[in-house]
């Protein structure tokens, strides 16, 4: 049981232990100072698994938990420049918490900019976000040795996925039909994944992991990069474009663009099973995150990942319905 967060806690820390959040902030301040920055003059940026501050010419990312960032740093240094990832100025570990300092580049977090964009700009942003991810996909021959075959929402084995599915069944009290569908979808993914070309996926192709300055200027945060079917990135792209932050289906030009992209890039034989499975695994991971919080007042079935997961397990296929029919 975590203690109650202080009234002035940052929204990104509302479900974290205040002592842990304070430690991460103090470590970030130490790191920023080593690169000429003052954390109190920097702004907190979006992100969940890492805490990020931007300003004074630098961006400081530090892991909330004792996680090393050496693998991610090696990958970032090898990325094609066209992806736009900011230059790494330093990387290391302090008290077990991995950190990375990059050069600040001009742009607004795409997730934060999204509500102010016109429908045409949102559509363009989705296409540009995908084009940045494709650069990584195409660079697989030179990057694959730096990327694991699991990570983020892709578990290492079917058994691991089934354990997560069991937690979801218990938490959501899934009907027999949805339980059967859940196992079928997960098994379908693991059966099909080895049969298609393996690409370096960003692994978390979310709006918050891109910068916008009239166009997408950078794709950020490759911590969950994973070698696997391209449907991993496609499933997240469609979800980001078609589902609101509150978990409601959105009919938009951006969503239409994401569906067109997905339809044009999924594997002609195994693509439906792969994109469906990847989407379900994504929501299982998010549901596990929510289950780890003890201060969410909503009913479990009303949580965003709960609603999205149950939708994906219905006959129509939730936000992937146009691709699965």
Describe the structure.
This protein has about 325 residues and is α+β, with helices and mostly antiparallel strands. It folds into 2 domains: about 90 residues, Phosphorylase Kinase, domain 1, CATH 3.30.200.20; about 220 residues, Aminoglycoside 3'-phosphotransferase, Chain: A, domain 2 (Alpha-Beta Complex), CATH 3.90.1200. It contains 12 helices and 10 strands. The strands form 3 sheets. A 5-stranded antiparallel β-sheet has the order 1-2-3-5-4, sandwiched between helices. A 3-stranded antiparallel β-sheet has the order 6-8-9. It has a two-stranded antiparallel ribbon with strand order 7-10. Strand 2 and strand 3 form a beta hairpin. The longest helix is centred in the last third of the chain and has 21 residues. The termini are far apart. The N terminus is likely disordered.
